Sequence to fold (109 residues):
Amino acid sequence: MADYSKMTSGEFEEALTDIVTETMTVGEMLTIPGVYEILAEEFNNSVLDRWAADNPAKAYPDAHDLKCDSCGEYFSIEDPEDEEELGNVIHVGNECPGCEDGTLRKVTS
Ligand SMILES: [Zn+2]
Fold:
């Protein structure tokens, strides 16, 4: 049996990282008990931000317009059916398709 007493924590981490990246996808990793919960908590705010940006009609049911924070131009949140046609540009947090300088923000009336 090998003597592992000289193994450093850095060496352990390096081998663990290699094994994990060689053997599983992120989807498989999330099925390990506890891993999903830890990552969901760690990235909770990013997940919520991304969902809201991807689903503006659900996330902002009372908002009818988005406004560029740079040039001030207004854009309407379109129906989901139209999103493909528009290239998904009219979303909260996306770059302004007008000036390409600012970011689209929700306008509450
Ligand atoms: Zn703009």
Remarks:
- The longest strand covers residues 65-68.
- The mean pLDDT is 83.
- The longest helix spans residues 9-23.
